[in-house]
Structure formats: structure tokens, C-alpha cells
Amino acid sequence: MTCDDIRDSIELWAAGEASPSVEAAAHLRACASCQASFAIAMEIEQALAGADTVPIPPPFTDRVVRAARREQSIDRTFGDVIFPAATSGALVIAGVAVWVSLAGSGIDLSSLPLAAISLAAAAAGLAWLWSGNETLTQR
Description:
Elements: H1 3-7, H2 10-15, H3 22-30, H4 32-50, H5 58-104, H6 115-130
């Protein structure tokens, strides 16, 4: 058992939320550094136990809940709208770059007039599917 292993659990032991294993207790008895950390954690727990609690006003709770929902909505917007749009744009640019590169290399693309549009459509479809939107795959 190492000091790093002990440090991860000291706060839980001081709070009474967990008990050290036999190995951890032996390390704690033998290690001055871990003993000091445990003593500090115990002091903090005692100070918190003696502290007065302040009731949380309902308006504060409502504001926190609204802010959490708003942030959750922003995360959903990124996953549902921004990521597929950015991916589609990147794939379209890559497709057009390949098409332009082929055209510039002397290859006759007159038989492929819709190549860029086809690449863009494929890119948009892939981005839609990769974004986790299963609307197209459920049909």
C-alpha cells in the first residue's frame, strides 16, 4: 500500500463514510505523512460538524436548476446541430478539394458534373448519422 493509495481515501475515513482496510490501517500507523494528512482531514471534519448551517432559499435552488437545464440544453444543441453542421462543412470542403485537385491534374471530369454535389450530399448524410440522430436509420 502506497501513500497515493491512502491519500485517495483519507477524507472518506475522516468523514466516517468508509473504513480503512487492514493494509491501509497498517500503512497509516507507520507513515508520518499519511498520519498528518489524516489529522488535518479530521480537524476539517470536526470544524464542519460544529459549523452552523444556513438554509438555502428556494429562489437560489430554482436558479441553480434553471442554469443546469440551460447548460444541458447547450450541450444538446452542440451534439444535435453544431457538430453535424461542422462535420458536413468539413467533409464538403474535403470533397470539393479532391474534385478541384482531380480537375487540376488534367483528368477530364466533364462526365462527372455532379461529383461535388454528390460528395456534399454524402457528407451531409454521414454527418447526420454520426451525430447520433437515428431518424434516418429507423425508417
